[in-house]
Amino acid sequence: MTQHPLELFAVDGLIDSDAKDMRDTVRAVLADRVRPHIAQWYEDATIPARELTRELGALGLLGMHLEGYGCAGTSATAYGLACMELEAVDSGVRSLVSVQGSLAMFAIWRYGSEEQKQEWLPRMAAGEAIGCFGLTEADFGSNPGGMRTSAKRDGDDWVLSGSKMWITNGAVADVAIVWARTDEGIRGFVVPTDSPGFTANEITRKMSLRASVTAELVLDGVRLPASAMLPDARGLSGPLSCLSEARFGIVFGALGAARDCLEVTIDYCREREIFDKPLAAYQLTQAKLADMTLELGKGVLLALHLGHLKDTVGVRNEQISLGKLNSTREAIAIARECRTLLAANGITGEYPIMRHANNLESVLTYEGTSEVHQLVIGQALTGESAFR
Amino acid sequence: MNIVVCVKYVPDAQSERGFDASDNTTDRENVDGLLSELDEYAVEEALKLVEAGEGEVTVLTIGPEQAADAVKKALQMGADKGVHVSDAAISGSDAPATSLVLAEAIRKIGGADLVLTGMASTDGSMSVVPAMLAERLGLPQVTFASELTVDGDTVTIRRDGDAASETITASLPALVSVTDQINEPRYPSFKGIMAAKKKPVERWSLADLGIDSSQVGLGAAWTKVEDVTKRPPRQQGTIVPDEGDGGARLAEFLASQKFI
Lengths: 388, 260
Hints:
heterodimer, A: 388 residues, alpha+beta, Butyryl-Coa Dehydrogenase, subunit A, domain 1, Butyryl-CoA Dehydrogenase, subunit A, domain 2, Butyryl-CoA Dehydrogenase, subunit A, domain 3, 12 helices, globular, B: 260 residues, alpha/beta, Rossmann fold, 3-stranded antiparallel β-sheet, 6 helices
């Protein structure tokens, strides 16, 4: 009788029954609708974003941890566990959901006017409208405050000019949350993507997150009414708080990818014979499996702890950084170690290992690189800001 | 229209299933269980009927403590309330006894315009409980429905057979068992999962139903499983080395097994 890596850590005892039922439902839906196709989508660099968003919306997965406006209002832990299931299938699928729920919907939910919430949130929760989030620019990644995109007053209107880069969901979105420089600092705008002057150019030829839509957004004098501005977000803290929401999902999500790699690898090692016995019966294999299981389990325990904090007393940004740094760094290490056990089979599309490893290359650096999170933690420890 | 859906908590076919060595009944203690997949179709059909009109869906199950999970799943899918009949004396009951308990429970619920069941359980697979239950309740029974419509006081179903498809009508109240062709059961939504906890679930014992324990259980069963033998592991298949006649030998094999 063998045990699953996470059974060793008895993590289910730390999860309430609703969150478990939601997790199991997400797992079942994905096994039914997404898993059979994901390798091919990745190969073809495509994802049926609109159809998939509707299906996940019907489930209540989009903006699931937000209250009201058609959102399910679940715990943060349940949201994290859903992200883990999504990313166990593919980081691109989880990215779609993260951007929809934690970046675009959260920005409107937290900083929007009542009209903006009524107009967008119910449709986005149902998956009828897709959102994206424009903060990063080609020359401004870890230093978003330097952004060049501007919003200028013209009478009561705002006129937005500039471009945004690496925008997940960009080319399929109905609405973009765009952050721009104004006379009063950085402000956010709700931009319908059919606004004149708005274009999204899909970025192709990616070696990572191939089952995910990535785009450049170009704003060429996009004229918006005064009501398009998010009234309650002033300065960089607005978009950064949205990123912190999304990072919370990544803390769980990246470990989902690692879990999938490890499950596949354990099965493979038990089946694969080398010389005259299974690969699993060699001490070096077992040492690798034990070390990977330990890192996975520790990561999940940290993720659940952060979820518990978020659901009770609140979680601080530097605590989210601990989780994002740990989950992404360990997940990619696990994916690479699993690859060594599958050897040549590990690089093929027949197994998910290389797909996860390639995806995790993006997850390692987006939403704050590992180095930025080290600096966030370093600042918390020393009081010294060492970003620049 | 008020609908009662009878559901069963069964051992998960994905896990190792077995029998209790002491009495050769299905082991329900040491395996993970779930709402029988074939009953999800009945729950889905009931939800669709009520959503298109009015009334409520009551989900009814008999089983040990863990069988509450089957009720919970149906409530998560959208059923309005649950009834869980649980009594140690019921353990080992056969189909006639099961139908007796279900019938008394439905009477205590106050009857129903429509009683829906799956086409069979995924563990016992006998398909006889719906017919026995209809007989006990004095209801017309229309079984194995792959399509179901209700118009006024009439239920119409399609039953697909090998030779023909029959269209059958019955007056309500009636009992209908549905097949796995009738719909695609929904997954519980997150709102459904959270709402299920607040829905009422009644727990009844045999005494609540006025049934004497001598009428049910292993002792009252009309049949007895004398012996259980585990099926031997599958034999390894035949390997045909291709020496130029591979195609012919493959065809011979398929013909001998009546595949072609």
